[in-house]
C-alpha cells in the first residue's frame, strides 16, 4: 500500500497532496520510509496509542441530551449519528480520559451491556469498551486539513478521517480498498491471542460500523477486482458507488534484471516477497518448504521483506526453522527486490488474506511463475479468471494453510523447467495486456479530474502521459455511470 500511494502521488506532479497518516504511537513520528515527493505540501500524523494531552478538570463536563444520544447510537449500532459525534469532538479539545472514565460513557456502556452481554463480567466488559473506543475517539479529535478531495486507502480509521473531512470542509470522498478492510480485521481478530471469546465479536462489529460509515458517505468506492466489489456490496456498500480499478505495475522496471551466476544455477531459488506477519502465514510456507527440501535438496527459499512489524511472530518463524532443522532459508529483511527477482526460479505467496497482490504482478513482469493461496484475486491473476483472457496458467493455486498442496506445488515447478518458463511467459503477457501502471493511472486521473470539474476546479495534467483507455476500461466506466442516480452523475 505504501509503495502504491507513493507512486500515485508522484504520478500527479501538478496536484498538491496532503498526507494524513495513521501510526501506532509517537515513537514512529517522522520515520518516513520514502522520500516525500515535492508535491506533498503537508503531512499530519495520527497516533492511535497516545497520551491524553488535555488537562483534567476538577469538574468534568457532561454531554447534553443530543450528544449522549449520539454516543448511545454508536454503541448500539442503530443509525449511528456520526456527524453529531464529529461535531462533539471537534468543537473543543476534550480529555478522553475524563470522557471514558465519566458518567456518560458508563451509562451508555451499562445500557449496551444489559441489552446484549449481561452474562459476562461487567468490569472486563467496561475496560474492553474503553479500549475499543479510545483509538476511535482519538481519530474523531484529529484536526482535519482542508482539501478539495479526500482519498482514503481503506475504510476503518482512515475512512473515519475521510468522512470527517467531507463533513467539515466539503469536497469529494473516495475510498480505495486493496483488501476488504473489515474481512481482514475479522481474520486477524479470529486468530489473535490478545482478545478472547465474545470480545472478538465486539471488536469485529466496531470495524463493521466504521466501514459502513465510509461506504455510506463516500462518493466513490473502488476495489481491485470484481469479487472484491461484490464483497463490498455484501457489506452494505451501495453498489451504484462501486467501481473496479485494477492494480498496475511499471513493466519496464523489471526488464533486464540481473540473473543467476553459474554456481547459483545449480540451485532452485524460490522467492517470497512479504512482511513477516501472521496474515502472510509464513509458518505454513516454512513447513512446506522444509518437506519439499527433503525431496529436492536443490531448493533455496528467500524470504524478502521487513521483520520488525511483528517481532514476536518473526522470532517464532526463526525458531521453527531451527527446530525443524531446515537449511536453505534466507531472511533478507527489507531489501530492493529488483536485485533479487531476476535470480528467482519461482515466486510464492502463502497468505491467508490478500487483495490483488502487487508481488504477483511484479513477478509476472519479471517473467516468473507464482505459487499462491486461493485468496483475494490470486486465482484470477494466476489462472486468468477461468481462462477468460486466454493467456494460460501462470502458476499454481493452493488452498490456504495446506502444507501438502504447497509442498507439491513447489516440487512440481522445481522439477519442470519448461513448465516454469511457459508459466512465467503466460504471466508476462497477462500483466502487459491487463495490468500496466499506465492503465491504473489513467483511471485515477480521470476520477480526480471529474471530481475537480464537478467542484469548478482546474485540473492540470500537462506533464502526465496517460494512454487512451482500452475497450474494457471504457466499458467499465460507462457501466458505472449508468448505475449512478441522475443527480449524482456530475460528481463522479
Quick summary of this structure?
This protein is of the alpha/beta class.
What does this structure look like?
The protein has 492 residues and is of the alpha/beta class. The chain folds into 2 domains: 243 residues, no CATH class; 184 residues, Rossmann fold (3-Layer(aba) Sandwich), CATH 3.40.50.2000. 48% of the residues lie in helices and 12% in strands. Helix 6 crosses helix 7, helix 11 packs parallel to helix 12 and helix 14 packs across helix 17. The C terminus is likely disordered.
Using only CA atoms, what is the Rg?
A: 24 Å
Which structural class matches the secondary elements?
Answer: alpha/beta
Query: What spatial order of strands do you see in the largest sheet?
Result: 9-8-7-10-11-12
The biggest sheet amounts to: 6 strands, parallel
- How many helices? 19
Q: Give the strand tally.
A: 12
Cα(first) to Cα(last) distance is: 24 Å
Mean pLDDT comes to: 89
Tally the structural domains.
Answer: 2
Global morphology: globular
Question: Keywords for this structure?
Answer:
four-stranded parallel beta sheet, 48% helix, Rossmann fold, 2 domains, alpha/beta, disordered C terminus, 492 residues, 19 helices
Reconstruct the topology from this structure.
Layout: H1 2-10, E1 17-23, E2 40-47, H2 65-76, H3 82-91, H4 96-100, H5 103-116, H6 122-141, E3 149-152, H7 156-169, E4 172-176, H8 181-191, H9 198-217, E5 220-223, H10 226-234, E6 242-244, E7 268-273, H11 282-295, E8 299-304, H12 311-324, E9 329-333, H13 338-341, E10 346-349, H14 358-365, E11 370-373, H15 378-387, E12 395-398, H16 403-414, H17 417-434, H18 437-454, H19 471-483
Parallel strand pairs: 1-2, 3-4, 4-5, 5-6, 7-8, 7-10, 8-9, 10-11, 11-12
Helix pairs in contact: 2-3, 2-5, 5-6, 6-7, 7-9, 8-9, 11-12, 11-16, 14-17
Amino acid at each position: 500500500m505504501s509503495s502504491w500511494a507513493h507512486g500515485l502521488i508522484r504520478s500527479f506532479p501538478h496536484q498538491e497532496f496532503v498526507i494524513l497518516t495513521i501510526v501506532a504511537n509517537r515513537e514512529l513520528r517522522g520515520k518516513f520510509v520514502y522520500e516525500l515527493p515535492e508535491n506533498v505540501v503537508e503531512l499530519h500524523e495520527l497516533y492511535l496509542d497516545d497520551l491524553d494531552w488535555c488537562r483534567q478538570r476538577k469538574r468534568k463536563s457532561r454531554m447534553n441530551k443530543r450528544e449522549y444520544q449520539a454516543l448511545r447510537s454508536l454503541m448500539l449500532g442503530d443509525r449511528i449519528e456520526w456527524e453529531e459525534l464529529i461535531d462533539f469532538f471537534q468543537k473543543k479539545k476534550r480529555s478522553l480520559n475524563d470522557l471514558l472514565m465519566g458518567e456518560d460513557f458508563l451509562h451508555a456502556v451499562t445500557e449496551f451491556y444489559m441489552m446484549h452481554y449481561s452474562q459476562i463480567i461487567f468490569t472486563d466488559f467496561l475496560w474492553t469498551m474503553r479500549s475499543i473506543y479510545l483509538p476511535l475517539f482519538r481519530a474523531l479529535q484529529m484536526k482535519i486539513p482542508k482539501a478539495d478531495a479526500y482519498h482514503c486507502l481503506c475504510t476503518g480509521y482512515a475512512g473515519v478521517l475521510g468522512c470527517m473531512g467531507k463533513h467539515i470542509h466539503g469536497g469529494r470522498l473516495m475510498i480505495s480498498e486493496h483488501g476488504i478492510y473489515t474481512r481482514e480485521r475479522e481474520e486477524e481478530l479470529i486468530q489473535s491471542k490478545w482478545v478472547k471469546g465474545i470480545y472478538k465479536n465486539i471488536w469485529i462489529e466496531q470495524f463493521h460500523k466504521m466501514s459502513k460509515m465510509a461506504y455510506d458517505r463516500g462518493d466513490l468506492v473502488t476495489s481491485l477486482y470484481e469479487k472484491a466489489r461484490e464483497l463490498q456490496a455484501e457489506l452494505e456498500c451501495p453498489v451504484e458507488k462501486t467501481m473496479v480499478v485494477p492494480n498496475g505495475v511499471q513493466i519496464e522496471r523489471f526488464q533486464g534484471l540481473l540473473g543467476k551466476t553459474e554456481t547459483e544455477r545449480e540451485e532452485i531459488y524460490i522467492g517470497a516477497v512479504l512482511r513477516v506477519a501472521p496474515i502472510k502465514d509464513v509458518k505454513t510456507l516454512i513447513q512446506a518448504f522444509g518437506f519439499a527440501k527433503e525431496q529436492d535438496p536443490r531448493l533455496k527459499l528467500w524470504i524478502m521483506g521487513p521483520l520488525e512489524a511483528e517481532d514476536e511472530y518473526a522470532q517464532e518463524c526463526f525458531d521453527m526453522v531451527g527446530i525443524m532443522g531446515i537449511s536453505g532459508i534466507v531472511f533478507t529483511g527489507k531489501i530492493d527486490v529488483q536485485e533479487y527477482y531476476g535470480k528467482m526460479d519461482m515466486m510464492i505467496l502463502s497468505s491467508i488474506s490478500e487483495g490483488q497482490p502487487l508481488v504477483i504482478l511484479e513477478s509476472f513482469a519479471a517473467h516468473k511463475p507464482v505459487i499462491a493461496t486461493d485468496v483475494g484475486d490470486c486465482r484470477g491473476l494466476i489462472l486468468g479468471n477461468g481462462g477468460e483472457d486466454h493467456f494460460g496458467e501462470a502458476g499454481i493455486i493452493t488452498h490456504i494453510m495446506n502444507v501438502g498442496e504447497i509442498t507439491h506445488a513447489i516440487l512440481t515447478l522445481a522439477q519442470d523447467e519448461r513448465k516454469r518458463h511457459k508459466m512465467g511467459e503466460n504471466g508476462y503477457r497477462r500483466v502487459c495486456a491487463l495490468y500496466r501502471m499506465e492503465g491504473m493511472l489513467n483511471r485515477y486521473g480521470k476520477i480526480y479530474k471529474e471530481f475537480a470539474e464537478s467542484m469548478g476546479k482546474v485540473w492540470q495534467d500537462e506533464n502526465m502521459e496517460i494512454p487512451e483507455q482500452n475497450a474494457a476500461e471504457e466499458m467499465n466506466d460507462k457501466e458505472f455511470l449508468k448505475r449512478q442516480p441522475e443527480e449524482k452523475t456530475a460528481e463522479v
